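Lab notes, practical 5.
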Amino acid sequence: MRVVTSLLFIVLATAPGRAAPGPSEPPAAEAAGMAATPAASAPAGAFGGEAVRIPSRDTTLTAALFRPDGAGPFPAVVALHGCGGLAKESLDPRYRDWAKALNDRGFVVLFPDSFGSRGLGSQCRVRARSVTPERERTADADAARRWLQAQSYVRADRISLLGWSNGGSSVLWAVRPQSRTERSSPDFRSAVAFYPGCARLVPRAWSARVPTLVLIGGADDWTPAAACEQMVAGARGRSALTAIEVYPGAYHDFDAPDRPVRLHTGLTFSADGSGRAHSGTNPAARADAFQRAPAWLAR
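Output from the prediction step:
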């Protein structure tokens, strides 16, 4: 993985959104803290990647760019963080692991920060969110795709979408046929959503316009698997290829490295509305996901 430090100053972007209690999207790094405090603008070279600025619908996004060695052109992945955002001194270990794994497979990886770019910190305890998966985060994903398509080292027709939790929910909103508003450039090639919140999409008869894979834990009590299974089953026959893998016994954040399972309390959202949910590493699910997701993104 080639890591470049840029002199660009960057701003950060988007957050999860849901107005009423229900399955929530946990933080990208929940254990790192979930206070909804304002985020400072990230310094150049933030998160260990190359800092870039991307114009989006209502702001200029800060993003962290990770490139494989070589001149390319390479396929690329737009990677969407969870409700914890990216406003940290260094990228969460889960995201670093994914950046390296995808770089090693020849992908450029771009992490737009939807919250920090708008002066927001973690949104995991925020009920009335100003940045939502269906609005700002979908726009941010498209802006990141268009930015990548303008880079000489990226294959414009091979850009895929990846997201975790609130970012996973954003993936599902972004790949709906109704979300394709600009047709002058190639669309996303494929998409992978880790433990997204699916409950709001079931009554909307969700479908995808690009091949989409959902990876979720069978024991997830933050964003439960049952709603996602119902959503994917309902899309069959009227959608691009969709698939779901449910990992028995796995909780939210199962792909995070070395994170003991713990109970979180006082959450804004949880599966049963109590504000209590578990998260933590599941080694078997993590190992499978690190094989399954890159293979899907390479379709």
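Observations recorded by the TA: The beta strands are 50-55, 60-66, 74-80, 108-113, 154-164, 191-194, 212-217, 242-247, 262-264, 277-279. The first helix runs from residue 93 to 104.
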